[in-house]
Amino acid sequence: MTIQKRNFYIMWVSNFLVAGTATMIMPFLSLYIETFGDYSPQYVQKWSGFIFGVTFVSAFLMSPIWGRIADRFGYKPILIINGFGIALSIFLMGYVTNVETFFFLRLFMGIVTGFIPTSLAFISAQTPKESAGKTLGTLQMGSVSGTLFGPVFGGFLADSVGFQYTFVITAAAISVAALLVSFGIKEVRKVKSSHDIQYSRKTVFSSLIHHRLMLHVMIITALIQIGNFSIQPLLSLYVAQLVDQSDVALLAGMTFSAAGVGNLLFARRWGRLGDAIGYEKVLTVLLLLAFLFIIPQAFVQSLWQLMALRLLFGIAVGGLVPTTTALVRREAPIEIQGEVMGYNTSFRFLGNIIGPFFGGIVSGYVGISSVFFSTGALFLIAFFFLSYTRKQPKQDFEKVLSHEQSLQLPN
Asked: In CATH, what number is assigned to the domain containing residue 17?
């Protein structure tokens, strides 16, 4: 077995463990806050939002920094730091007694929460450009599989052994993933020569702004996440409007998982198609399909209709992340690939931050059904963004980098 193939298998398993166990604690965050004292529902809801969102804020700020460090020292050290950092923060969460401490631990977790995006960048860097889409799509199947089973297993554990032991078990599983990386991964790094150009952070960022395709991919990445996260927190409420049963939480979980199943089934296929015909073409089609499949969700009259549409929507969005990542892999020079991937990850986390607020505001004023329209509009905007970019003359990212570097040199 080649080093690259062994690295891939280890990262697939590690991503499954990290995604699955990290999402185990999601279903009961608000319930855990209630154990700290006799709080009003408004207080619990407010702090649940703060504690959920603060992780993405710190992750948004840190992602480019981790990427730049990875370019200098390699991806493996970052994966190890992130893995054990997440495990430590989750372990300590099991022993907190007030919301303030819980908030700061979630903040710290965001600082080190880039395990899965870093794994994508790591595998992307060792994968030939012509097969990056298929490989990244397959890798995403690991994290999606974990995300599907994690919340269900976490809820079962919380009911069976309590919140504290669930945090401890979660931390232990993520530590296993970090140990797998520590002792199983062998990173083959490019040997840097004295002739390699060192680009400043300012140069890299300025080049991203002035390269049409890269800038629009970053914006599209944020729009995708805003679209996904705007409806997710409201899905259980929407399901409750469609059914008159006591087991709404289970039915909402099944509805949520329907999109994940579609994602799981087609992520690899979309990646392979992108390798064959071009990532821009596939991304354009996927954004249009996401728009077409999310709008009808506002008109459903029964739960099975919503589940079917969520499955189709999951099939469409399943290719978005591996396709955008492969596109960045194709355009970015290897010596700054980690930093560029870091910026792409930051835009993903920015979408994660904005999405719930956006969905909450829209649903609060117009109703939950309207969120599907606004989300569809975001995918349509992203579609037109990319269609416009594809019609423009192509730019070489390395030439843009050289130009921006020359502008910053002293005369």
From this structure: 1.20.1250.20
How many independent structural domains does the chain possess? 2
pLDDT in tens, 112-169: 887 887 888 888 888 887 777 788 888 877 877 777 777 777 777 777 888 888 899 9
Q: d(Cα 389, Cα 277) in Å, to the nearest integer?
A: 17
pLDDT, tens digit, 9 for 90 and up, residues 7-19: 999 999 998 888 8
Sorted by sequence, the CB contacts under 8 Å of residue 186 that are 6+ apart come out as 3, 6, 7
Does residue 128 sit in the same domain as residue 223? no
Tokens found for residue 102: 């819980």
> Does residue 400 form part of some domain?
yes
- Indicate left, alpha or beta for 367 from its phi (over 0: left) and psi (-120 to 50: alpha): left
Q: Range of 24's domain?
A: 1-185
| pTM beyond cutoff 0.85 | no
Return the sign of the alpha-carbon dihedral for residues 75, 77, 79, 85: negative
Among 262, 231, 26, residue whose Cα is nearest residue 144: 262
Same domain, 152 and 221: no
Both 241 and 366 in one domain: the answer is: yes
Picking from 185, 210, 227, the residue at the C-terminal end of a domain is: 185
Cα angle vertex 120, ends 259, 256, to 5°?
Answer: 15
Residue 9 CA to residue 12 CA, distance in Å, equals 5
Say if residue 168 is in the same domain as residue 289. no
User: Quick check: 286 and 317 in contact, CB under 8 A?
Assistant: yes
* Cβ partners under 8 Å of residue 52, min gap 6: 29, 106, 356
Average pLDDT over residues 298-309: 92
Residues 232 and 180 in one domain: no
Give 238's contacts (C-beta < 8 A, 6+ positions apart): 231, 306, 368, 369
Question: Cα–Cα–Cα angle for 372, 116, 324, nearest 5°?
Answer: 55
